[in-house]
Amino acid sequence: MASARERMVVSAALLIRERGAHPTAIADVLAHSGAPRGSAYHYFPGGRTQLLCEAVDYAGEFMAAHLGRASSGLDALDGLFEYYRDELQRSDFRAGCPVVAVAVEAGDPDKPEQSAAVRDRAAAVFARWRQIIAELLTADGVSAARARELAVLVLSSFEGALVIARAGRDLEPVEAVHAQLRSLIVSETPSARTNREPQ
Asked: Highest taxon of the source (predicted)?
């Protein structure tokens, strides 16, 4: 059974992905997680900034594990889009990426130290996801330099598709980007050419 602290981190990540970072208050996290009132500063003496950082870390680990289970770059791509396609539909298009939310909103000029801490955590998560994708593509026979380029393209296109899909409450951007990226990876990955159709 998850501890109150763990429940708070998960709740923060879930709330941030649907509401954004700024609208997600510690009181919301306490209510969502069912953690005792007053426990926030016991578990997170660094306050809201620490909670945001740990929520980003949790989201990063969750998706890194998801990507890490893939057998190939193509499998990782399909899994990424399939997971979020389901999440968008299940949440009525509220579920976005919590890492994007904090990266976009971590720009408060009145609190540069807090903003930098959260932004740096988000940057580290994006770098890790790109590395996993690039390593899978390299294992598929793509050159290391090209795999790094493709990993950036996959991740940035995926995140952009999520934003557009949420705004329009329509899966078409997700479907279109998935199909285009899939065709590109198939064309550049010899081992993927026998597996052309999405799962």
From this structure: Bacteria
Residue 85: HSE in the Cβ half-sphere, 13 Å Cα cutoff: 15
Burial of 91 per CB tally in 10 Å (0-12, 13-18, 19+)? middle
Q: Evaluate whether 127 touches 63 at the Cβ level (below 8 Å).
A: no
Q: Which CATH number fits domain 56-192: 3.40.50.300, 1.20.120.80, 1.10.357.10, 3.40.50.2000?
A: 1.10.357.10
Cβ(160)–Cβ(154) below 8 Å = no
Count of C-beta atoms within a 10 Å radius of residue 17:
24
Say which residue, 102 or 129, is predicted with more confidence. Answer: 129
Report how far residue 137's alpha carbon sits from residue 20's, in angstroms, rounded to the nearest whole number: 32
